[in-house]
Amino acid sequence: MRRLLLLTMSLFLLVILTGCLMSSEEFQEIYEHSMDLDDDGHRDPKYEFGDDCDDHDATVYPGASESCNEVDEDCDGDVDEGFDKTWYLDEDGDGEFSPDPVVSCTAPGDVVSRNPGADCDDRDGSVRPGAPEYCDGVDNDCDGEIDPDTALDAAVWYTDGDGDGYGDPASPLSACTQPAGAVSDDTDCDDGEATVNPGHAEVCNDFLDNDCDGTDNTCARTGTLSLANADVIILGGVQGAEAGVAACGIGDLDGDGVHDLGIGAPGVTGRGRAYVFYGPITADSNLQDAPATIRDTETGCLGAAIAGGSDLTGDGLDDFVIGDPCWGDTNSDGHADGAVFISQEPPSGTESPVSDWLTINGAGFRQGVGAALSTRGDVDSDGRADLAVGMPYGDRRETDCGQVSIVHGPITENPSTSSGIQLYGISEGQNVGVTFTHDLDANGDGYSDLLVGQPEIESGDYRGRVEIAFGPIREDSSLGVASTWSGGDGYIGLGAAVASAGDVNGDGYDDILAGAPRTLGSNWTQTYSGKVYLVHGGADGPDDLDEDGVIFSGEGGTEAGRALSSAGDFNGDGYDDILIGAPGDGDDLGGAYLIYGPVSVNRDLEDADLILRAEEAHHLAGASVCGGYDLNGDGYDDLVVGAPGHDEIGVDAGAVYIIFGRGL
Question: Do 579 and 567 touch, CB atoms closer than 8 A?
Answer without folding.
Answer: yes
